Amino acid sequence: MIKRIIALLMVMTFAALPVFATGTYDFNSPEFRQSAQQYMCLCGCGQDHLECNMDGCGLNDSFKTEILEKLNDGWTQDEIKDFYVGMYGEVILTAPEKSGFSLTAWITPFAVLGVAGVGVVLLIRKWVNNAQLILEEVTVDSNDDVDETEDEVLRSIIDKERKKYY
């Protein structure tokens, strides 16, 4: 009986832990930092909202405060992301979505570059093979000419020597 009561108390304690874990977030919490790094600052500095340190950038402070309020209100990072993408479009994101046109736009240049590289390698191999075939033909033809010339010279020398002694 006591084991059952202890087990019941343990289950109730572990069930209550997520309620205590959803405390308030601050500017140093990992959830806030991860969320703020997802969005580009709109002041033109080219950095994410966590790293933006331009003087006079009023957008960054208000944006950080807004993200922090949404996290403390119970919004998930995906909900916050959907909210800002709906408001500003995908331009606000530091990394593109991994679906649809964004994925195509990021993959296509690398695919074209890869196909072009393979094409260049195949073209160079073809040129090298053709050059080797031409070189072999020239070598074989020149060897035949040299052999015939040598044979004629040797025959003429042999004929001269034969005439001398016979």
UniProtKB/TrEMBL annotation:
Family: Belongs to the CcmH/CycL/Ccl2/NrfF family.
One Pfam family per UniProt: CcmH
Transmembrane segments annotated in the record for this chain: 103-124
Signal sequence, start to end: 1-21
Organism of this sequence: Evansella vedderi
InterPro entries assigned to the protein according to its UniProt record, in alphabetical order: CcmH/CycL/Ccl2/NrfF_N, CcmH/CycL/NrfF/Ccl2_sf
Superkingdom of origin: Bacteria
Boundaries of every CcmH/CycL/Ccl2/NrfF N-terminal domain copy: 9-132
Function: Possible subunit of a heme lyase.
CDD domains according to UniProt: CcmH_N
Entry annotated with the keyword Thylakoid: no
Name the UniProt record assigns to this protein: Cytochrome c-type biogenesis protein
Keyword set includes Heme: yes
Sorted UniProt keywords: Heme, Iron, Membrane, Metal-binding, Signal, Transmembrane, Transmembrane helix
